[in-house]
Structure formats: C-alpha cells, structure tokens
Amino acid sequence: MSETTDLYAHLPPPVLREADPARGCRRLEGRKVLITAAARGIGFATAVRLSAEGAQVWITDRDAAALEAAAVVASAGGWRLHTQVMDSASAEDTAQALERMTQDSGGFDVLVNNAGGSLHTPYRFLDEDETHWQRVMDLNVMGAVRASRAVLPGMVARGFGRIINFGSKAGRFGSLIAGPNYAAAKGAMAALTRQLAQEFGPHGVTVNCICPGVVMTDRTQALWNERRSAQERERVLQEVPLRRHAEVEDIAASVAFFASEDASFITGVTLDVNGGQAMA
Ligand SMILES: NC(=O)c1ccc[n+]([C@@H]2O[C@H](COP(=O)([O-])OP(=O)(O)OC[C@H]3O[C@@H](n4cnc5c(N)ncnc54)[C@H](O)[C@@H]3O)[C@@H](O)[C@H]2O)c1
Fold it and tell me: Best of 2, 62, 245 to mutate for ligand 1, by most ligand atoms within 8 A of CB?
C-alpha cells in the first residue's frame, strides 16, 4: 500500500445524507463532468450533487476500492457514477487515464480539479523538506494543470467549458493545521485560475476557484485533533460567524453553482466558502 493510500485506509466509505441534495434543481442536464480524487469527502459529495442536477459524472481516485465503494453508495441513491483509477500526482498515470475517459465520454463540459491536500506533511516550514514540497505541489497544482491541459482543447473546440479549481482558506489567510507548502499550493491555484480565465474566456470557458474553510471530514477531524488542542479548536469555531464548520454538501453546492448557467458571467474569481471565518 502506498504512503498516500495509507492515510485513508482506516476511513469508512462516504455516506449519502440527503435523498435529493439538489432538491429538484436540475441545472446540469446533459453536461459531462469530470471530478478528480472524488471517492470520498468534498469530491464525492460534489459527484452526487452534480448527478442530482442532471449531469453525467466521471470520478477518479487513486484508491480503487474506495472508488468502487463510492459508486455503490451513489447507486443506492439512484446515481450512476463512472469511475476511473487515476493518481493525480503522476503525470504518466493522469495522461493515460484522461485519454481513456475523454474517449469514453466524448469530452468533458465541466472539470472539477478537486484533487489536493497537505498529505499530512509537517506544519512548520523548517520541518518541511524537498520531498514534502514536491508531493504537495504535484498533487494540488500539477494535478490540476495536467487535467486542465487534457480537457481544454475539447472545451475550446466546442466553445463551452467550466473549470472549477480548489483553493483553500489556507491559500488566502494561512492555516492552523497545514504547512507553508499547502498554503503556497492553494495560493497558486487562485493565480492559475485567474490566468486561465483570461486566456480561455474568449473561447467560452469559465475558470473559477472555491476556497473552503474548515470542512470536518473524517480525515481533517483527525488532523485537527492531532495538531490543535480542544481549546484551540473551540476558539476557531467561535471565530466563524455562522458558528459551525462546513459540511461537504456546502462546498458541493458552490461547485454546482459555478458549473451551471447561473454562473455563466462569472470567471476568474475565488469564492470563500467558510462561514465568514476570515473576515475578522
Ligand atoms: N477538507 C477540508 O477541510 C478542506 C479545506 C479547504 C480545501 N480543501 C480542498 O478540497 C479538496 C478536497 O478535499 P477533501 O478533504 O475532501 O479530500 P480528502 O483528503 O478527503 O481526499 C479525497 C480523495 O482524494 C484521494 N487522493 C489522495 N491522493 C490522491 C492522488 N494522488 N491521486 C488521486 N486521488 C488521491 C483519496 O483517496 C480520497 O478518496 C482538496 O483540494 C483540498 O485541498 C479541503
């Protein structure tokens, strides 16, 4: 088992919390969507939300068993997810998998560059080494670069596309649990978003970036418990005006908005989805 897969090995499969997360809203009828690293967490919730809005959804993940479990859980809610094993940190793997999925789908209208994370590398700058930086940059930044490079020619040819990148509160205001490599990678995602938005806007492609605050998935909960005391965790919660952390469904709803026609005149923005946390 690889180092990254290990981080997730003990976690349960994702759950379906609502029978119809889109509550009858079907803005993505006929759209083909690719979401990277989506067997769990925000990506999986997004796959369900976009399916519920009428999209045909392909999800990738490095973890084949988790992908299978995700497809089973989704099908219990009536949604069919296409799955493809893909390591978003590997150029070779990404190129092969994307070529296969592009042929299979006939091309994607929407790309959600969800793959990312701090990979539990050290919090302190002087504890981070070259390998930590390389791994985090490869997954967060290069994963998005490679997937975007693969889908953009088709989007340009069709004159329509939506790319939704994942930044983070860490990339805008710093993080209490992830280190400088992760903050820098997420800052880069916002910069990449603006640059691609300028270049591809004339071709009908919008590119936007979502910056979640704390989303207490099983994985992040463990990291918070490990790196911050109970008092610190409580203080962070009290700094959020809405007095709760994000649910994965909160983030999925923002992705659905950017993917839809409702956001057709919005491009190059970074959207904070953090309960107002960073205003203070
Ligand atoms: N959870 C948070 O609090 C939070 C906050 C801000 C931003 N984000 C960002 O949101 C996105 C999703 O975060 P999450 O917490 O839902 O993710 P997660 O850590 O729960 O991981 C989701 C999936 O990524 C897969 N994965 C890990 N490495 C991979 C690789 N190299 N190739 C392919 N798949 C891989 C895992 O197997 C897992 O199924 C990330 O970009 C993350 O940086 C998360």
Answer: 62
Threshold 0.90, pTM exceeds:
yes
User: What's residue 279's pLDDT?
Assistant: 80
What is the pLDDT at residue 18? Answer: 78
> Alpha carbon 252 to chain centroid distance?
9
Fold entry, domain 26-215+248-270: Rossmann fold (3.40.50)
Catalytic residue of the set 8, 182, 224, 258: 182
| Amino acid identity for residue 150 in this structure | A
Cβ-based neighbour number of residue 267 at 10 Å: 20
The Å distance, Cα 202 to ligand 1 centre, comes to: 31
* 108 touches 154 (CB < 8 A): yes
Q: What letter represents residue 114's amino acid? A: N
Do 36 and 43 meet the contact criterion of CB atoms below 8 Å apart?
yes
Q: Which amino acid is at 273?
A: V
- Looking at ligand 1, which atom is closest to the CA of residue 41? 16
